[in-house]
Specification:
With 115 residues, the chain is of the alpha+beta class. The protein has helices at residues 3-15, 38-47, 49-54, 81-88, 91-100; strands at residues 27-34, 59-65, 68-78, 107-112. It has a four-stranded antiparallel beta sheet with strand order 2-3-1-4. The longest helix has 13 residues, at 3-15.
Length: 115
């Protein structure tokens, strides 16, 4: 993960309490990985929206490294750790990522909102 991606992830965590779309998300998955072609990846990602919803994703955001636009950071919010784990380990997601041109194994961090 590039220094930019680490900084972006830290900034996103700091910004979450004030982000209206993330206020009520109890579980957050932070996924980063390089892609072969961002445009192709984004088309597949957007086409997978129904599967995301069916898989329990209640919030999503995508960020790019400005210096390396084929490096992406994806945030997915879930209602529970179980929902996050089920979605993130699903064969449908794995297949979609392969078809989207994910160029390396993703780095995935799942965190729960602190009380």
């Amino acid at each position: 993960m590039t220094q930019f991606a680490r900084s972006l992830a830290a900034s996103v965590f700091l910004a979450l309490p004030v982000a209206a779309s993330a206020q009520d998300v109890p579980v957050l998955a932070v996924i980063s990985h390089p892609v072969e072609d961002y445009g192709v990846w984004r088309q597949v990602y957007d086409a997978f929206a129904d599967e995301q919803q069916a898989g329990g994703v209640i919030m999503e955001q995508v960020f790019q490294d400005p210096g390396l636009p084929n490096n992406v950071l994806v945030l997915h919010g879930f209602e529970s750790l179980e929902a996050a784990e089920a979605f993130l380990t699903s064969d449908k997601l794995k297949s979609a990522m392969e078809g989207a041109g994910v160029a390396a194994a993703p780095t995935v961090k799942v965190v729960a909102r602190a009380d």
